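Action item from last week, closing it out:
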Amino acid sequence: MLNYIYKRTSHALQVLFFVSLITFAVLLWIPGDPAQLMLGADATPERLQTLRTALGLDRPWYAQYWEWLKGFVQLDLGKSYLFGQEVSTLIAQRLPVTMSIAVFSMLMASVVALILGALAAIKKDGLIDYFSTVIIQLASSVPSFWIGMIFIVYFGIRWQWFPVAGYVPPQQGIGPYLASIALPSIVLAIGEVGMLLRTVRTAMLDAINQDFMDMARVKGLSSFTIYFKYALRSAMIAPLNVAGLQFAKLIGGTVVVESVFSLPGIGRLILVAVEQRDVFLLQGLVMFVTTLVILIALLVDIAVMFINPRIRVEMEGE
């Protein structure tokens, strides 16, 4: 087990290193002078040179990269010239918003996908299976911003069930907090449930057709035990991997939903950094999101190992 975890962790660190190198290179060589952006078009050459020296921008790229990488390891992601704050502080302020809607949306999508996907596989070609196919098609084809606008018009403005914009932290009350993230979480869940539902259905169908299911039927076990204890457990590997990747994607992929609902999250902060060409903020955000994605993928791999020890044996035998 430790050997498996060591291999996965080593691979994750290698990926993180190459992503850091690519991120730094791309953002370093894009057009634009950070010093000019910070001081404005009227800055004198002397002031520009002084700021470049203070920021280390006049040093060779590898020296700049090494200092930036050391700062990242020490959780120092630099300072945003747009906001005048540390990047780590900006992330800490906005991460709870993004994590809230990501967690709640994945919980809703997972529950719907597990129940509907399992029933669709058990009742293959039946009404529930047909309904799940419709859900998959709709969830995969309807844009999230359109769903968000429809929700705002009906649930927020016409019926006034939920607020249409803004975020209320849980410290100000659980009720207002849940109300503020309800609509964006549902919109994100609709966008993610299609892929997860398809994966659960396919994996469940494959499990139902395995030989051990025939043995369970011969033993006279109840349908509930056969399908929901043995088949569903055997079918959880692929859905767990997909759910982990979807959740990791949501951490940096909530730009549209956060913009529609005016939420001060990570996705909207990335959009602002791109629009304003805040290189230091963008570098820090990309590395933070990448690290979080890699960490979630690593944890999912380890969780899959515990669910299915055969994977661990295969990996250790490589």
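Closing note: Residues 87-122 form the longest helix (36 residues).
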